[in-house]
UniProtKB/TrEMBL annotation:
Protein name: Cupin domain-containing protein
Taxon lineage: Bacteria, Bacillati, Bacillota, Bacilli, Bacillales
UniProt domain Cupin type-2: residue ranges: 49-92
Top-level division of the source organism's lineage: Bacteria
InterPro entries linked: Cupin_2, RmlC-like_jellyroll, RmlC_Cupin_sf
Length: 120
């Protein structure tokens, strides 16, 4: 398991076409991908299971805890991105509720665009 950030501080300011916003790249791919949104209610859980494909879990609201195969939980919050490899065991818990975008598919490599929180 590796934790990244996609917060606005890791993005690039865009001013083309009189624009004024920050964009954080997440992925480029020509492979088949599945993208979904998870809404996990208060005291919710995504049970301990193996990832069926490389998986990027982007927290867009709320907070919770995640773990990989080790029984060590890491706190995550809005702006954090968790990456699990194919067949990696993982789990997500939240006491307050959490919304996340999930991208699954071969060829995911968040290190191409995102900064690892371990590098901070």
């Amino acid at each position: 398991m590796k934790i990244y950030t996609f917060a606005n501080t890791s993005g690039k300011k865009i001013t083309h076409f009189n624009s004024n916003f920050i964009m954080t790249k997440i992925l480029n791919s020509d492979r088949e991908m599945h993208i979904g949104c998870l809404y996990i209610d208060r005291d919710g859980v995504v049970g301990y299971h193996k990832a069926i494909a490389p998986q990027l879990f982007l927290v867009v609201e709320g907070e919770g805890e995640v773990r990989g195969k080790e029984d060590v939980y890491v706190k995550v919050k809005k702006g954090d991105a968790v990456f699990w490899e194919k067949d990696e065991w993982h789990e997500t818990l939240t006491n307050f509720g959490l919304t996340a975008m999930v991208i699954e598919g071969d060829g995911l490599d968040p290190s191409r665009f995102m900064t690892s929180k371990e590098d901070d």
